[in-house]
Amino acid sequence: MTETPHGQGPALPLTASTPGTGFTQPGYNFYEVVGGHDTFVKLVDVFYDGVADDPLMRPMYPEEDLGPAKERLLLFLEQYWGGPRTYGEQRGHPRLRMRHMPFQVSPAARDAWLRHMRTAVDALELPPLQEQTLWDYLDRAAHSMVNSA
Ligand code: HEM
């Protein structure tokens, strides 16, 4: 149900609807509340515009075309927040820390990731509570992904 923490902090819940994360009220769906597919497409579009120009991050991506990586992040985030479960159907359990092991996620890479994500979240112009909810998760997830000094 949860990520293997590899000894670094608490495990991330698999989806935001996991009991204990505050999204368990019947009928409440964060994915829909923030605007559904279009909102998440915009988030990853703006984020990957930043990655494409980033001298530290761009070389980390194995494929020439960033499109497939963008699609994987989109599907993951949509599933996490209560949208379609396509990510799981295509990729299985996220195991995000494990999937990032081939890449050197240093504190500097984490900060670059978060900088581009901050720009992307700002571009959504969400109400403060929704923005804070989304950002808190992204910030925590990025800190949990660091795997090298
Ligand atoms: C902290 C800095 C991070 C760096 C430097 C980083 C970098 C990368 C790289 C290089 C890849 C491989 C690209 C590809 O899929 O082809 C990747 C994949 C991915 N990342 Fe990150 N990432 C970071 C944090 C995160 C966070 C916080 C999340 C989720 C909230 C995330 C979600 C994903 C997903 C869903 C994939 C695709 C996994 C799959 O293969 O299915 N990443 N990341």
From TrEMBL:
Keywords: Heme, Iron, Metal-binding, Transport. The keyword Metal-binding applies. Coiled coil: none annotated. Heme binds at H143. The keyword Transport applies. Its cofactor is heme. Pfam families: Bac_globin. InterPro entries: GlbO/GLB3-like, Globin-like_sf, Globin/Proto, Globin_bac-like_CS, Hemoglobin_trunc. GO terms for molecular function: heme binding; metal ion binding; oxygen binding; oxygen carrier activity. Belongs to the truncated hemoglobin family. Group II subfamily. This is Globin.
